[in-house]
Design a protein that fits this description.
single chain, 2 domains, I/LWEQ domain, 16 helices, globular, mainly alpha
Length: 401
């Protein structure tokens, strides 16, 4: 429950009757991350190897971390304030430079990538702290963020001075420091840990923003697939492949935005500690969901490029492992929010993995059609059962309350 209090300059007003919509500044900011997600999928397609996928996964976490931290800030700060809008515009520029440097982050553009990411994280946190009154509770939160982002920033910059994959020797500890900071409560000497109850978030806005990123990832999948289809020539086979890819993407959309999404909203709003739920379920557990969508986009691209050939190795892993990772990530998210697993989705993920021995002996089109049919069947099953049944992933209003 968010208590009403006097408005503070640059902050969003809080109160039960006050709407907190996503602003046009935030939507403008998201455009950069459409580009960033596209860069990641193209990075995998350009290096379809285990090492290439590992690098892309590493970079995805960094991209997500930059976006989600800015989302936390915009949940507290009013983007319509000229000062806040200026900060977000600066963060957007740093994000654009970071996204542009992604393909060369382990090559000639490592310095630009690291400098952009550090400037984004440190600059945003410093600016947020300076916009707050000295006695405001959020001031201490952002001062903690400044300390941790500066510490990890030193490692990011130091790692960029190395060559190639040697950068990982320093960048992996830097990313580990970034990821561990929320769990550590942004501990500082003499100040101890911050409690998640200090994070006075507005649940509706926060959920809407995270849902928006899922739309970004799904939209990128459609863009990449459509562009590949046009380049391949819209032959009857390519059109069929495009239809199969769309059915798969539409099923992913439903599996995220179906009836359970609304129950998640209700639970978030009624939670006694929405900050902890936002940290666990959205900040951390959305990473495998986004990774699964990117992998699906890569698999769809491979489908349209060579529909009659069988897939092997990493390509096969993208087609089967992408949706399986998505389903597992989505299930972990639902478990954290609702406390109950979805047996149908976990069974579907297991079935996708079990298809691997068969998948290397049939065409990419046949395999993708099976995947799309399976995901579509799960989505339709949940669509038909959600309003009436009380299965493992369904909550009654008493549970929500």
């Amino acid at each position: 429950m968010i208590a009403e209090r006097p408005p503070v300059r640059h902050l969003r007003p809080r109160g039960e009757e006050i709407a907190q919509p996503t602003t046009t500044v935030e939507l403008f900011f998201d455009l950069v991350y459409v580009f960033a997600v596209t860069q990641l999928s193209q990075l995998i397609l350009g290096d379809l190897s285990v090492a290439g996928v590992a690098r892309a996964a590493f970079l995805l976490v960094i991209v997500w971390w930059a976006w989600i931290y800015t989302t936390w800030m915009a949940n507290w700060f009013d983007p319509t304030s000229p000062a806040v809008g200026s900060v977000l515009t600066g963060v957007m520029l740093a994000s654009l430079l970071m996204a542009a440097a992604l393909p060369g982050s382990f090559g000639p553009h490592g310095e630009l990538f690291a400098v952009s990411y550090v400037a984004l994280q440190v600059g945003r946190n410093v600016a947020a702290a300076r916009l707050l009154p000295a006695d405001h509770p959020l001031r201490e939160v952002f001062e903690r963020l400044v300390g941790w982002s500066v510490l990890s920033g030193i490692l990011w910059l130091a790692g960029s001075a190395l060559e190639g994959d040697q950068r990982l020797l320093v960048w992996i500890p830097a990313l580990a420091l970034d990821l561990c900071a929320p769990i550590a409560g942004y501990w500082l000497p003499g100040r101890g840990r911050a409690a998640t109850t200090d994070y006075d978030i507005e649940p509706g806005h926060f959920i809407e923003r995270c849902e928006g990123f899922i739309i970004i990832a799904l939209g990128e999948s459609i863009v990449v697939t459509g562009a590949t289809a046009v380049d391949a020539g819209l032959t009857p086979t390519v059109v069929v492949c495009l239809g199969v890819a769309f059915v798969e993407t539409a099923a992913l959309w439903w599996l995220y935005f179906g009836a359970v999404a609304e129950r998640s909203r209700l639970l978030m709003r009624s939670s006694e500690d929405p900050g902890r739920l936002a940290r666990d379920a959205y900040t951390y557990l959305h990473v495998p969901i986004v990774a699964g969508i990117i992998a699906v986009a890569v698999g769809d691209d491979l489908l349209i490029a060579e529909p009659g050939d069988a897939l092997h190795g990493v390509g096969l892993a993208m087609v089967l492992g992408g949706p399986a990772l998505y389903l597992v990530g989505e299930s972990l998210f639902r478990i954290r929010v609702t406390g109950a697993a979805n047996a149908k989705r976990l069974a579907a993920a297991g079935l996708l993995v079990a298809l691997a021995p068969v998948g290397s002996h049939i065409s990419a089109l046949a395999l993708s059609a099976i995947v799309a049919a399976l995901l579509g069947a799960v989505a339709v099953w949940e669509l038909r059962s959600a309003p009436l049944t009380a299965d493992s992933d369904t909550l009654t209003m008493a549970d929500v309350a």
